[in-house]
Each structure stands twice: as structure tokens, then as C-alpha cells.
Specification:
By secondary structure, this protein is of the alpha+beta class. The chain is built from 7 helices and 12 strands. The strands form 3 sheets. Strands 1, 2, 3, 4 and 7 form a 5-stranded antiparallel β-sheet that branches. Strands 9-8-12-10-11 form a 5-stranded mixed β-sheet, with helices on one face. A hairpin with a 2-residue loop joins β10 and β11.
């Protein structure tokens, strides 16, 4: 009876050890093969989702902006009085009485320089004939309409067509994206999604749930945090529509951060878990042999 009991206990111990090894191995495989839940965008949206998005934010003139303002009329000679000179690009970045000159390539392929107005710290520009104009806070359409109204109201020109463009506006995209850099903000209502698309989208090592948009407003810098995994969050965030000189930063995830240290991600590698299972198997065999 005692012998039978001993043999039964030995068999039970062998089964317990084997079951323990198998359970641990299965657990390690589940941990190593688990699917991350923070990679897909807009996880809270389905086919019929309706979102009240953040109000659109059109670009507005700020101090230090460079503006190209062109006045056209049926009388070209009259319109010339209200336009800054066009300078050949070989003259370089030359200055003039009203602003600076920036190089560009025209549709005909010739390289010319567009004279621009630099908005003063007080938000003003010195416009030909009209003199000092306060333009800070205006959109392109509002500024064009304002100058057109001044020209007509003072009987300077009867049929003006005024166009306004930003020349130096841009945004910076940094961090875990495929093509970080500075990009031209060439249209109104550019979103953070547009910026990330221009930068080649996020790398797999970038955090989707903590995108930072840093915006300078006066002497302060505001930081907006956006979560790309939540459509409701990102579309209602004040940082969704970008402004000139905004910086978009994509933070690295924990895996990427650990890569900066020696063997930082060893515990997450498949070879590590294989080694652990191998060691546990060896220990189990030793235990079984000792029981024998």
C-alpha cells in the first residue's frame, strides 16, 4: 500500500510539473503574441458615426507674417501704383521700401522674386498710396476685401481685384514619422491629419494616443494633446486645425524608448521567451529525476 501511494504521488508530481511548464509556456506565448490595441486610428467610429467637429479655423494674419498682395485692374498702369516691384531673383533676397523679396519660379519657368509685405510687431503693413494699414487678425479674404474697399472708397481705382497670399507660413512635424521636417502651409483649414499625411504617416513605434500640437500665441505656447485612436477626441480638439508655425510632435512608444537602452526590449523578444521556456523545461526534468 505504501509503495502504491509513493508511485501515485510521483506520478502526480510529474503531471503537476508538466502541467505547470505547459501553462507557463502558453502564458508566455500569449503575452508575446498579444495584439496591441493602440495602433488603429478612430477605434470609436463605425460606419454610421456622426461627429460635431471643431469649428474650422482659417489662417489669420499675425506679426512677422510675409504677405503677397496683388492689385489688378482693367487699367494695368493704374494698378501698378498699388503693387510692389517684381525683382529678378539674381539680385538675391533684396530689400525694398515696403518689405522683402522672396524667390519663386513662375508658371512660364522664369525665376523671379515676389516682393512681400512683412507684418510689423504692431500688426501693420505700409501699403503703397494707402499708407499704414492694420491687418493683424484678418483672413486672406477679409484683407483683400478691406484693401479693395479702401481703393474704391478713396476713388483711387474703380475696378480693383485684390489677391492675398501668405509667403512664409509653414508647420513642423517631428518625432516618430516617416518624413519629419517643415512643410508649407499652402491652404486654409489644414488639419493635423493632413500634416501627418505629408510627413508620411506615423511609424509603428509612434504613439497614436498622445500627439502634441504646440502653438505660440503671443508670449505663451499652448500645447494640445490629440488621440488618433479616438475620432471623437481628435475632431473636437482645438489643435485639429493647424495655424502657421505650429509644431506637431509624435512621441515614441515604450518599445521605441527602450531601444535607447542596452537590451531594453530583451524581455519582449521571441528568443527571450524561448530561452525562458527552455530553462523551465530543464528545471522540470531535474525535478522529475529527483522525484524518481
Amino acid at each position: 500500500m505504501r509503495r502504491f501511494t509513493t508511485i501515485y504521488i510521483m506520478k502526480t508530481n510529474k503531471l503537476s510539473v508538466s502541467a505547470l511548464v505547459i501553462s507557463l509556456a502558453a502564458l508566455f506565448m500569449m503575452v508575446g503574441c498579444s495584439t496591441p490595441k493602440d495602433v488603429a486610428y478612430f477605434q470609436d467610429l463605425d460606419q454610421i458615426s456622426v461627429i460635431e467637429a471643431q469649428s474650422r479655423q482659417t489662417l489669420r494674419v499675425k506679426p512677422d507674417d510675409k504677405l503677397q498682395i496683388i492689385v489688378m485692374s482693367k487699367d494695368p498702369q493704374l494698378a501698378t501704383l498699388f503693387n510692389l516691384p517684381v525683382v529678378a531673383s539674381r539680385l538675391g533676397q533684396s530689400a525694398n521700401a515696403y518689405g522683402t523679396t522672396s524667390a519663386y519660379t513662375s508658371s512660364t519657368g522664369s525665376s523671379e522674386g515676389l516682393s512681400s509685405y512683412t507684418v510689423s510687431p504692431e500688426g501693420n503693413i505700409d501699403f503703397p498710396v494707402l499708407g499704414n494699414l492694420h491687418v493683424e487678425g484678418m483672413t486672406r479674404a477679409e484683407l483683400a476685401g478691406f484693401i479693395k474697399g479702401e481703393l474704391i472708397g478713396k476713388n483711387l481705382i474703380k475696378d480693383p481685384t485684390v489677391t492675398v497670399e501668405f509667403l512664409n507660413t509653414g508647420i513642423s512635424v517631428l518625432g516618430e514619422v516617416n518624413a519629419p521636417g517643415r512643410y508649407v502651409l499652402n491652404r486654409d483649414e489644414l488639419t493635423v491629419l493632413d500634416a501627418l499625411a505629408m510627413a508620411g504617416d506615423l511609424k509603428i513605434q509612434g504613439r497614436r494616443d498622445n500627439i502634441r500640437v504646440m502653438r505660440k500665441e503671443g508670449d505663451k505656447t499652448k500645447v494640445y494633446l490629440l488621440d488618433l485612436t479616438s475620432g471623437k477626441d481628435i475632431y473636437n480638439n482645438p489643435g485639429f486645425y493647424l495655424q502657421q508655425d505650429d509644431m506637431v510632435y509624435v512621441e515614441p512608444n515604450d518599445y521605441r524608448k527602450r531601444e535607447t537602452t542596452v537590451n531594453g526590449n530583451t524581455s519582449l523578444s521571441a528568443s527571450f521567451w524561448i530561452s525562458v521556456v527552455s530553462v523551465l523545461t530543464s528545471v522540470a526534468v531535474l525535478v522529475v529525476n529527483l522525484v524518481k
